[in-house]
Amino acid sequence: MNAKEEALRLYGYHVWANGRVFRRLEELPQDIARREIQSVFPSVFDTLAHIYRIDTVWFLAMRQRFDEIIPASRSILEETRGMDLRRLEEKFRDLADQYLTFLNDTDAEAVSAYPHPQFGTLHARYIDIVRHVVNHGTYHRGNITAMLRQLGHPGVPTDYVFYLQEIGAP
């Protein structure tokens, strides 16, 4: 498997796993996603909004649109505040379409510079940034599982091996 295929597979997993979380939330009482609890984020919805915001930040960074990151991040915080779960899922899908187009048109082995005002400039391959985005999402989907359990509901398995099995990967 080359780097582009790996990037597409990993990102496909990220989309699949997020979709499984949304499907699980549809099965639960409507208020569960917004119910406030003591956790990493105030609610499951806030955790999903965070994943979406950071996915957007990294998408802009990979496209070298650094001047748009802070305004987009602030806008997402405001926009998601009153958003319903279905609309947030649509936003995830729209962003996923953009990611997939970008990844299909990009050399995943190419190195790009990612300047940060505090941490300096990171030079990384696109595949490494995709790994980071997926890993970040996996971490927070784990938070969501713990939050759902705290609210008295089982989470949903989103392990990578389940994705591989579902797509019939060799």
Task: Please give a structural write-up.
- The structure is a single chain.
- By secondary structure, the chain is mostly helical.
- The chain has a single domain, classed as Up-down Bundle (Four Helix Bundle (Hemerythrin (Met), subunit A)), CATH 1.20.120.450.
- It has 6 helices and 2 strands.
- Strands 1-2 form a two-stranded antiparallel sheet.
- A hairpin with a 3-residue loop joins strand 1 and strand 2.
- The protein is globular.
- The model has no long low-confidence stretch (mean pLDDT 97).
Secondary-structure blueprint of this entry?
Layout: H1 3-27, H2 44-62, H3 69-81, H4 85-104, E1 111-116, E2 120-125, H5 126-150, H6 160-167
Antiparallel strand pairs: 1-2
Number of domains: 1
Highest-level CATH class: Mainly Alpha
CATH level-two architecture: Up-down Bundle
Mean pLDDT: 97
What is the overall shape?
globular
End-to-end CA span: 11 Å
Q: Major sheet: order of its strands?
A: 1-2
Give a brief description.
The protein is mostly helical and 170 residues long.
Describe the structure using short key phrases.
65% helix; 7% strand; mainly alpha; two-stranded antiparallel ribbon; Four Helix Bundle (Hemerythrin (Met), subunit A)
